[in-house]
Amino acid sequence: FGIAADENFVITTTNRKEITEDNFSDLVQDGVTLYLLQSVDQILLLATKERIDFLPHYDTLVKSGMYEYYASEGQNPLPFALAELIDNSLSATSRNTGIRSIQIKLLFDDSQGKPAVAVIDNGSGMTSKQLNNWAVYRLSKFTRQGDFESDHSGYVRPLPVPRSLNSDISYFGVGGKQAVFFVGQSARMISKPAESQDVHELVLSKEDF
């Protein structure tokens, strides 16, 4: 930090509480932002950035599809919601060397549970970490960095072309979770990475919340 050996300094929290041997374990936690200052009341000459982590209320997720899709410019929003789900499969199968298989099934058999929309593909699959990150609200598959392992690692967004199998058909850009909660009340993701024996499953359910 370029501090001379004979120069005094203090370490404080953003609330200007000085870190000492006595309060270190209480004030210094993972992700906390600290200031290195000449004095506790030193004026900051530049703007600082602090990372904020928060858990949104579950209504933010389960009702977001309704709020996102109401602004569908007078069009029937259901096709766009289905397009979001298909878009995930298009991304997942974009690097297939063989046949790209994407199936859309509308399930209405009460003996199998509640009615459902199932989108099935033969893409690369997701690890447990990638599946966990898929559940993070507003975490775009194109902007996941750092500790976030993208569910479409290595995927390259294609050049803008008329909407087709070689494009991203996502219209609203709100992602699969919002699309799911526009259509129904729960999402079940079942995925097996191509190079793994493990099958991973994630359920996001309004009822469970």
Could you state the order of secondary-structure elements as H and E?
EHEHHHEEHHEE
Main β sheet profile: 2 strands, antiparallel
- The order of strands across the largest sheet is 1-2
Rg over CA atoms, rounded to whole Å, is: 23 Å
Task: Please identify, by name, the CATH architecture of the largest domain.
Answer: 2-Layer Sandwich
Sequence stretches where pLDDT stays below 50 over 5 or more residues: 143-155
Count of β-strands:
6
CATH fold node name of the largest domain: Heat Shock Protein 90
Helix content: 10-25%
Indicate the CATH class of the largest domain.
Alpha Beta
Shape estimate: elongated
**Structural class by secondary-structure content:** alpha+beta
Q: In DSSP terms, counting alpha (H) and pi (I) runs of 4 or more, how many helices?
A: 6
Beta-strand percentage? 15-25%
InterPro entries: HATPase_C_sf, SMCHD1
Protein name: SMHD1 protein
Organism: Serilophus lunatus (silver-breasted broadbill)
Pfam families: HATPase_c_3
